[in-house]
Amino acid sequence: MRQVSGQRAARLSLNWLPLMAGLLALAICLVAMRTWPAATQVLTNQLFDGYQRLLPRQATEPPVVIIDIDEASIAELGQWPWSRRVIATIVDRLHALGAASIGFDIVFSEPDRLSLSRAVDALRERGATVSLPSGTEELDSDASLARALAGANAAVGLALTDEGRESPPKPKAGFAYGGTDPRRYLTRFNGAVRNIDLLQASAAGVGFFSFATSRDNVIRSMPMAAVAGDEIFPALSVETLRIAQGASGFVIRTSDASGQGGGGIPAMVDLRVGELTVPTDADGRMRIYYSGMPNMPVIRAADLVAGRTSAEAAAAIEGRIALIGTSAVGLRDIVATPIASAMPGVNVHAEIIDQIVAGSFLMEPDWADGGTLLATFLSGLILIGVASRSGALLSTAAFLVLSAAFVVVSWLAFARGQYLLDPVGPTLTLLVVFLVLTPLRLALENREKRFVKNAFGRYLAPALVERLANEPRALRLGGETRRVTVLFSDIRGFTTLSEGMDPQALTGLINNILTPLTDVLLKGEATIDKYIGDAIMAFWNAPLDIDAHEEKACRAALAMLDVVEALNRTRPDPIRIGIGLNTGEACVGNLGSAQRFSYSALGDSVNLASRIESLTKFYGVDIAVSEFTRQAVPDFAFLELDLVRVKGRSAPVRLHALLGDETMAVRPEFTSLHQQHDEFLSLYREGSFAAAREKLAALRGVAPPRMDTLYEIYAERLSTLLADPPGAWDGVYVARSK
User: Fold this and answer.
1) Which of 74, 132, 273, 458 sits a CA distance of 20 to 30 A from 594?
2) C-alpha dihedral over 446, 449, 450, 452, to 10 degrees?
3) Is 716 exposed, middle or buried (CB count within 10 Å of its CB: 0-12, 13-18, 19+)?
């Protein structure tokens, strides 16, 4: 299991790649959020639209009534445009019913083609003599409408545009401001579609009804003030509010005005109209918070003209702002809003008025941009920290939790405070970081798994290799101290067995023996350390924790004997193996030189296992186990061999022969043998050599043949001890060789 040390250094350096890539992606996204906010505007608008559909503005008893030029009114009164005399009738009746102010979502840009005065003039131009009786009502319908406008609190509509070059009229109301001239930052138009001078002069006010454009043509905001030519004009909604309150003008508050404490680029803060204050964004737009206005009265224009106004309708007009507009599809004043794909444009102006009077506004707080960037930065660091050190599942969970947190905070800010906090930018930033980190992390994990599988695939069981590949951090490269159970095995008489065999035949013999033995060890969750000629070194509990590793080592040793017996049934000359087992602390890890290293184990416990394996030949047993391993497996069939002081180790160790598993341990013949064997050793250790020899003679009569060598050793020792009794006796045998 040898690897070039440079590969380890490369793996360690690659662990920094996800962290660096994640930080770079986070930095790029933060810069993009700061310098290019429009990149996510479409998604942000869609999200805030969804918020309004889920939680529209609370419905009120609105201060607005709509006079609707609908399809039924057109069918009754004739094709649009109607005579200005009809419009004058509407104005007169609204004024008579006590409308607080009247606003036209209509522009009268040309003289009335249906005016009778125009017909009379045309006849006279052709030579006809036309005489009218005295007391005849005014033939000029534009003049009729002008008189009606002059007698009512009415504001005519104005379309500001960049398409026409007609100069706008003079505004009716003035604007007061402090600080920077608002003409520098308000929405600017090149020209206007204006009313004829007669109507313009007669009206009490003029306001534009041009909506703010968006990429998807959804009306989400409306400029409260805009610039055309060199003049500032109010929106139709606030102009009607001004007239209704009897105010003479507007007050614009700017960020750099005295007392505002602002800084940076000058911007609009809010618009004051009479007693009402309208908060705006930097360029004077108000975000519209729609309610659908289910309680708003709508009166058909034809009913008002025909005098079919009910008492309920009359009461609805009194004290309210009356907006005259159309819901007829053919007149092309149908717009899309966050809560409806088709809404009459006049209804949008009504929503604005209702929202201003109710004082219910959608606002983006001053700290929103900075707070969002900071929250994005911190959450990005959290995601990078998790994703660069964890698997795809935990990384995905972190991404989803952090993203959900942004959305939840955004929704709660909207629902409880009517604040607009954009979660789209932060969520997309986290997505970018996640998409950068996850594939890179997976690639590195796969690379690490391949490294682990290549390094350990021939030394660990497949299940352990897969477990180690999934938990590579369980492998501490460089060495660590662990409690392991070490196994050494060796083929008995291999030198004699190999005499006369050519190298190819000898290689085939070794492979045929070691392959099934290795299979047994791998199945028993062992780590194969090395092959030393005909010997195998293996250990348990490294690099991964193995439960009950002492027991698994004993079972593997017994299974190795079964494999050898199976092989012997196919061979003319049987083979035998000796196995030594010991449990203790060892240093395990990548050990070796700077040029080459392998995963191995070092320490006194390893050396002791090797000595124990050598002693199996001396004691004539197949498996010898130290007392440290024996203590962890109390239910197996063990017979104590001896108390031995092995070469190179001062403290003696108690050795045991492993004869079988827990099923053998409960057999009557073994329990009887075990009892007599322990009685013999007690006599031997206490120095009762004569009694011990008598017990040994009886014991040899019932012991299995595989114990003959052991008992022959004790018989020779007892003869020597009886012939030359020792002065001091501790029962320890000193091994003279390794």
Assistant:
1) 458
2) 160
3) exposed
